[in-house]
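Tokens for Protein LURP-one-related 14. Go.
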Amino acid sequence: MEASAPELPLEQAHGFPMISVVEDNFCVTYSTEVTVNKKYRGLFLNQRYEVLDVNGNLLLQVDGSSLDVRKKRLMRDAAGSPILTMREKINLVTLRHRWMVHRGKSLEEKDLIFGVQRSHPLDMKPRLDVFMATNINEFISSFQLVGSHIDKSCKVYKGETMIAEVIDAYPRSNISKWTESFRVKINAGVDYAFIVALLVILTVNDYI
């Protein structure tokens, strides 16, 4: 029996770069769209994000409380297994806010994946800079998220290349239901859990 050929990396097999930040299995071989539904529930205004594919299947869910001082958010897969934890930290010297994103439920430095910080509080157009764990204290970001719902434009870039964008946003239409949603187009090979994490951070901070 002949041995099978080794499986090629995604970028070699399909001719485009794979951008894996959280995990490889969140990168798909085609351009995809997901819908993110944000809901408020309960007396303490617990927030839940549900991420659905084009067929309405649950891909990811994110939970957290509006009253949490650290704005902690936990992302899980459809089965409920923890993927990553997002929380805000404030530099007491510069008073700059930075989000730190760790694997699973961990908050330990060894499990840090990336950090997110607004480029400058006075910028007219919101921009979030993303710093990978290996480059967390540097000044050059690896990714940028630019725009807002107000501008009806929200895009994620790696360098000069756009890798994802919000293509539709639906504001809260019924205050009794407290729901919002937006649709996101993500390039082939791009980690959709990473893109969703950035958008959750953006919306929690009311930048959009």
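The radius of gyration is 17 Å.
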